Amino acid sequence: MRDLLIGIDVGTTTIKSAAFSVDDPRTPLLVTRRPAHHDEPQPGWSEVDPRRVEETAFATVRELVAELDPGRVAAVGISGTACGAWLADEHFEPVRPAILWNDGRAADVTAAWRDAGLMERIFAISGNAPFPGYTLSVLAWLARHEPDSLARASRVLWCKDWLRGKLTGVIGTDESEASYVPFDVVRRIWSDELLEIAGLSRWRHLFPDLLDPRATAPLTAEGAARTGLLSGTPVAVGATDIIAGVTGAGAVRVGGNVTILGTSANSTVVSAEPLFEPWGVGIMARSPLDRYARSLINTSGSATLDWGARLLTDGDVEALLELGAEAPPGALGLSFVPYLSPAGTVSPRLDPQARGILGGLRVYHGRPHVARAIVEGLAAAVADCYAHMAQQVDEIVVIGGAARSDLLLQALADLAGRPVVRLSGDEFGARGVAILAGWAVGAIDDLEATAASLDASRRFVPQSDGPLRGALAAYQDLAARTAGWSRA
Questions:
Q1: What CATH number is attached to the domain comprising 45?
Q2: Which domain holds residue 76?
Q3: DSSP class of residue 328?
Q4: Mean pLDDT of 49-66
């Protein structure tokens, strides 16, 4: 009886596999996790050996299947980190380490595009404001600094497509992944004009076929040996990490929204048509059911809390949150802008050179006030994104590791001026690709209803007359000043 779906979710910090029931895929029946590791060969660079990712991801599946009957698995879905570049040679082996989305080496490339006035055209075609880790930027950097890597490559892929290719032998990607590359989001094709702008026309052959979102391929004998699954098990095309999380959190219908508080803080609203407002910032992707996901992102999400914990509490995030709770809301006027990523910031202002700011210091501020400011700074960064959304939402749905913090979510409600809903359950990225896999093989008929069948575990109501009233405007003023400082 094939009554199980498996979702593999490769994140920046954790790699997970989860099993869900076909009949009730609201929460996982079993989850296996292993830490994800990346290398920093130079400051601001972020790379990973694809073979290491393969081994770790497939090990989580083996651990999962060891507790389950593999004959019960109806289909497998895969999600992985977006953007960057995973270059494969003609034998489907890595040409070089994969470059990840949070890599900052191409900052000069995006700055040059900005100075040349090319950002407007890139955004008009793709709906994406290119940042250093965006695939177009990464490939342009490689063409300039490592042309031999591109010459030795047969395909450029992305994390989930690499893993799916290793399991099935089928090389391709879907439109959710392609959207964050040189993609024409209106015509839904690879964009030759974007490749020309980036000086990449000669590398057009590297881009793989675009597959239907309901495409599947059978697991090969080698893939079965590496995962413990049965040969022939359908492996769906999957979705990029953002779309997987959005789908898994139930935001499939038009107007649905979710903020994913992962390593980055991604706030997404779903629309029926491509939505280009606010102009020139953020990213957009094709999502299931012929819809589009418009995202505004602060590139440092839970990474903000990790940084604060390293600074103040020996790396203990829970201790950071407890320390912050000792200070009053507003941290006695201390403000923090969490532009910490080497990739700068993408939304609601685009600046690959953006730096974080701690402002308003006085002699009476201590460690608890700094901790509180860090937490409230992350909340303000998310609220700032929603304030700039063209589609306003009545409430904000939040998932991800940092969503476990009551302190953070109450601050977000107060700063955004609308309720914040924490969903029950976890592993929403794995859930998203699991139900997409079930939909692909016909085990799930109504994708929208299945995706939305989730319950709220807690609702945070804004205190409109509370101590954080007006704090978002002060944050926005401070954040706007980063443009001048980052280029000084």
A1: 3.30.420.40
A2: 4-242
A3: P
A4: 97
